[in-house]
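Chapter summary example.
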Amino acid sequence: MVWIALAVVVVLIGGWFGIRYRGQHWPAPMTMRIEQFFLDNPVRRRFFSPERLWQVTGSLEGLTVGEIGVGVGVVMEQLARRVGSDGRVYGIDIQAEAVWRTRERLKKLKLIDQVSLQEASATRLPWPDQGLDWVFLVTVFGEIPVPERALALAEVGRVLKPHGRLGILEYWPDPHFQPEAKLSQTLLQNGFVVEQVIGTRIIYALTARREERR
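The structure predicted for these 214 residues follows.
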């Protein structure tokens, strides 16, 4: 029995490293089955919740916000509650099933009225110029292929209001986890200045604003 247990552990660890390696070298959205496991389970809600992100954003009441990569709707649910009836939430995902699952989730919770969901790419956001107060990416930035990240950040800059902010949450062991130093450097190279970072090396949230041009 001990050998069987050890074999299972080895397989699980090996499988995780395989997923991690693939996620770092060939970034792509996770399947819905994996997303459901990673994003909507008691362990994740207890230890890897978006609470760190809300600590750096402050109140979102009445604001217009957007999420890139809605997944199964966990974060969209919280955003819809936080902006309230006077706010607006936009969400996109490159996977049609993710959009459908999120829409159904919000319908059941009676939160769909202030939400707009679309199937779209981070490199072509279907949102108005300078129309959003916040744009959020929760364990999503690493899923964007490296050659497309500059364009995705340019799109974020386009849709943010002059004083709008970008909010990002990252946590390990997500297969696409981005270390804070690496992510901050990428943001700086693409016209964003990091304002706040809270958390640890393996779980952190940050906010950034567009760099003012002189």
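To summarize the output: The first helix runs from residue 2 to 25.
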